[in-house]
Amino acid sequence: TGVIYIGGGVPKDFIQLFAVTPDLMYDRFEIPGRKGLKRKGVKETFYPHKYAVQITTDSPQWGGLSGATLEEGISWGKEAVGGRIVTVYCDATIALPIIAHAVAERLGS
Asked: Which residues are catalytic?
């Protein structure tokens, strides 16, 4: 999966937790039809996001979820090791239109 986090807080937390909680959602601890990763010694399966973009104005040193780095998410299994992740430190009203335009241009839309 790929995710775009705009800011942080509860929405970011919800999206990140979805990657590590299928064991609570499904009887066999895995999403049917999807290949997940297994943790050693337990039945749990997790599905880290392979692509992640975070747009935030918050910095990591303050300790808030909005500023938590995506690299920290890797340590919890929320983002994939070796995945393509990027954090954009900018106001979302500036960064999101630029990113959307670049994607549209790249896809030829």
From this structure: 78
